[in-house]
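Hi everyone,

Forwarding the result from last night's run.
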Amino acid sequence: MRHHQVMGQIVIEKNIPIPNCWTGPGPEPDYPWPKMEESDSFWVPCMNERQRTAVRSAGYHWFRVNEPTFKVITRTEEKNGQDGIRIWKTAKIPKEEG
C-alpha cells in the first residue's frame, strides 16, 4: 500500500469567513421541504415517470428523516401545457392501536 505525503502541498489559511448556507442536516435539499408549512404545495415539471418517481422519493425520504409527523402527497398535473407533479405537505394521521 502506498501512502502519499501531501502536507507540503496544503496551505493553511487563517480568518477565511464561512459563507452562509443551508443549516439543516446533510446537503441542502433540491426542493423547498424545510420552508413548507402544512398544506403547502409546489409544482415541478417532469417529462417522464422516472423524474416523477425521483421527486416523490426525495419527498418521502426528506420527511421520514427530518419531519416524521408529516408526509407528502403527490399528483401528476399539467400546468401551462407541460406535464409535471404537484407535491403537498400533509400531516400524518396516527394509526389507531388495537
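DSSP finds one helix and three strands in the chain.

Cheers,
N.
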